[in-house]
Write the C-alpha cells for this entry.
Amino acid sequence: MSSQVDFGLGLRPDHYEEIVANPGRVTWFEVLSENYMVPGGRPLQWLDTLRRDYPMAMHGVSLSIGSIDPLDRGYLDALKALTERIEPLWVSDHLCFTGLRGINMHDLLPLPYTEEALDHVAERVMRVQDHLGRRLVLENVSSYVTYAASELAEWDFIAGLAERADCEILLDVNNVYVSAFNHEFDAYAFLRAMPTKRVRQFHLAGHLHKGTHIIDTHDHPIIPDVWDLYAEAVRLFPDVPTMIERDANIPPYVDLLAELDTARDIALRVARGRAPKAAE
Amino acid sequence: MSVGGPATNAGSLGDLQRAFQDYLLSGSDRLTASVHDTRKADRTTLLEVYRDGYALRLIEVLANDYPGVMAMAGPADFDYMARSYIAARPSRHPSVRWFGKDLADFLASTPPFDRSPAVAEMARFEWTLGDAFDSPDATPVGADALTALPSVAWETLSFTTLPSLHLLAFDFDVPRAWQRRDEQEPGNLAADRAEAPTSWVIWRPQLTSNFRSLAADEATMLAALMQECPFPELCECLAPSVGESGAVARAASLLRSWVEEGMIGSFRH
C-alpha cells in the first residue's frame, strides 16, 4: 500500500506499555471514543502520549444513529471536543440503534432495512456531519435476527445511505461473515454491492461459532474463512486501511501484531496479483 | 421453530425499536412476531443472544468497577446483585464508565442488599476511587506559595482541594478490606466494623490515586476547608478537640501535611 495509514490496531489499555516498548509496528490506532470522554487522569494522558506518535481514528459505540430518540446533543458535543483533541483521521460509529427513551442498552441493535429507516438515518447522519464538520463513517454490524418489515437487503440499505447522506463506510469483514452465516446470504455479494469510493476502513475480528449461529465476540483470532473474505475486500477496495479489533480475552500486543502481519501478507499477495493486469 | 407463529411485517421503525427495548428490559414478547426464524435457529434462540449479551456486558462492567464488592459477595451473589441493579437502574449515559454510579445507593436502600451495609460501603469506596482515577487534572499548590504569603493574608485565606479529592465516612473498615481483595476466595472477604465511624480521604495528586484515614479533628477541618471557610474559622473548628491555645498550631500542621501530600488545589485571600 502506498498510504502511510495502512495497518492498525484498536488501542486498548492492556497494551499501552507494550505499544511504547514496540514502537512503529503499526501505522495507526483506532480509539474507542467513549473511553476518552472522561475529565482527566491516566486515560487521557496515555491518549495524548500515543497520539504524538500515531495517527488515530475515533470509533464510537453510542451515537445511536438509527434511534427514534432525538440525537444526544451532549454526546455530540463531547464527540466534537474529542475530535479537537485527537484530530482524528476519521470518526466512525455503527449503523444501528443502541436504545431509546433515554436508556442506553450498550448494544448494537439492528435496524429494519426499510425506506422509512433509510430516510430517518440519512437525515440524522447529515445533521451529525454538520455538527462535526466532517463526514461520518458508519459500520455494518453483526446481527442475529432480521425483521419481517425489512424491504431492502442490508447491502442496498448501506449503499443507499452512503449515497444519500454522503457518508462513508467502515466495512467490517467479520460482521459481513457473521451476518451472512446467520441470515444465509452471500457474503461476497455483500462486498460487491459496496460503493467503491465510500469504503473508508476495514475491520477484522474473531467470533464465537455456536453451530446454529455466530456471535460477534471479538475474543478469538480471525478464522481462515474471514481472511478469505478479507482478500476479496482488499481486491475490491485497494488501499483501504485495515485494523483488527480485540475486546475480550485480549492477548499480548505482539500476538496481535503477528495477526496483523497476516493481513499485510494477504494485501501484498492481492496487490501482486493485481500488478501484472495493471501492466497489460 | 418458534411458537410465535410466522413473522409479520407490521410495525414502524419506532414500534420495532420500542418492542426490542421492551424485550431486553422486561422480557416482553411483542418483538417475537416481527423477526424471522432461520433454517438453523428459531427466533427465540436468536433474540436471546441480545438478551444474554445485554446482561452479561453490564455485569462485566460492574465486576470491573467493583472487585472489592465481588470479593465480599462472591460470584453468585454478585451476579444476582448485578442483575437486580441492571433491572432497577438501566444505563442513561453514553458510556458504560458511568453505569455503576448508583450501585452504592442502590445496595444501601434496596432489600435484601441493605442487610449488608459493609458491601454498600465497599461500593461507595470503589466508585469514589474510580472517580478520582479520571477526574479533572489539576496541579497541587506547593508549600512555597503559602510560606511567601504575608501574615495579614492568613486572616482571609481560603482553599479549594483538588477536583479528585473526596471525603468519606465509613462504619466498616472497607479501605483495608479492599487492599486484601485478591488474597482470598471471592465471597470470603469481610470488612470489620470500625470502633467508631472513620473518615477517609481519597485524592489523586498526579496520576495515581491515594487514600488514607483521617483523625476526627482532621476530618472536621478538611470538611470546613472544602466549604472554603477562611483559615481563622478552620482554626476555630479545631478548638473543641485541641483547645483555643493549640488550634492554630494544629491547623497549620494539618494544612502543611495536606499541601505536602498534594491535596490542595488553590487558595485565595
